[in-house]
Amino acid sequence: MDIRHQITDLQLVHPFKIARRAVDRFRQVISVELDSGLGETAPAKFYGETVETVQRALEIFDPFLNGNLDAIQAIMDTLESTMRGNYAAKSAIDMALHDRLGKVLGVPLYRLWGLDPNETPCTSFTIGLDEPEMMQQKVREASEYPILKVKLGTSHDLEIIRTLREVTDKPIYVDANTAWTPKEAVRKIRELVPYGIELIEQPTHPDDLEGLKFVREHSELPIIADESVKRATDIPALVGCVDGVNIKLVKCGGLLEAMRIIHVARAHGLQIMIGCMIESSLGITAAAHLTPLVDYADLDGHLLIANDPYSGVRLEAGKLILPKRPGIGVIPRDPSNLEA
Ligand code: MG
């Protein structure tokens, strides 16, 4: 089997900024084709992966994709024992295998898993860090989305939320992207409570589970781990430290592992958020098929780009509407209709 792959520059509608990183104008994704299956990944340096490491991993994995492509679990187990980590690369392969299997069987992924497509939640829409006036402008532009996610982790976090509350009364999720110390987090969360915040994502350093526990014990708002959780095996250590976990396909290695995290987290009484990187409709739609199983969806990566090569999952008043086509169910977008 030859895994064909392609690198695409996604152009961002707004340059994007979070606590630990400067502004980006483009983000690269890698799409793969395996038989009739399509997959995509968006490697993150934070997790030690780049376009180059993904390309290298795809070369190494290629010889293991010659057998029965229906046997996704066996294939993913083989890749895991061949090379540790490289979960962004594994995610692209896992996604393409699922897309292919759905197409072979003629069913969309949600049906393959026995999920009810009417049970999807609304997605949040992310407002990246910027000058407060610019963030207000982004909130106005997000009028069609019923839930906002605001990136914090600055010296003026409270001012940002106060400023945004002048222009919106929508539910707000806050993501500090590891920027706060535990004590700072407790103080800031206390200040944020009166502003109608629904949850706090990753307030502190990913490895500081005691810090997360301290924040959780001293805060009224649910604490959701993102950078602290990658795989299902990370879940037991997080029990008692957080209220929920944010799953991303490129962190965990694909749909099969994401499903495993969901079940392990549920068994430990945790809430589930499913999130994303900046990805095209291909990666976002794959993740969206899992959303009948989650409490919170943060699947807006494709809404932040101007040149989405695919169309797939749609939104109706923020609710995720899954395509009924077989597999992931995306189709290429007519390039002449691209905004950029
Ligand atoms: Mg996050």
What radius of gyration results from the CA coordinates? 19 Å
Strand order of the largest sheet: 4-5-6-7-8-9-10-11
What percent strand?
A: 15-25%
Shape: globular
Uncertain ranges: none
DSSP summary, beta strand count: 15
- Name the helicity range: 25-40%
Which class of secondary structure composition applies to the elements? alpha/beta
Outline the biggest β-sheet.
8 strands, parallel
Average pLDDT score: 95
> What compounds are bound to the protein?
magnesium ion
- How many helical stretches? 12
Description:
The protein has 340 residues and is α/β, with parallel strands linked by helices. It has helices at 51-61, 72-82, 87-105, 109-112, 132-141, 157-165, 182-192, 209-217, 235-238, 249-252, 255-267, 281-288; strands at 4-18, 21-34, 37-41, 124-127, 147-151, 172-175, 197-201, 223-225, 244-247, 271-274, 296-297, 310-311, 314-316, 319-321, 331-332. The chain is globular. It starts with a strand and ends in an 8-residue tail after the last strand. Bound molecules: magnesium ion (MG).
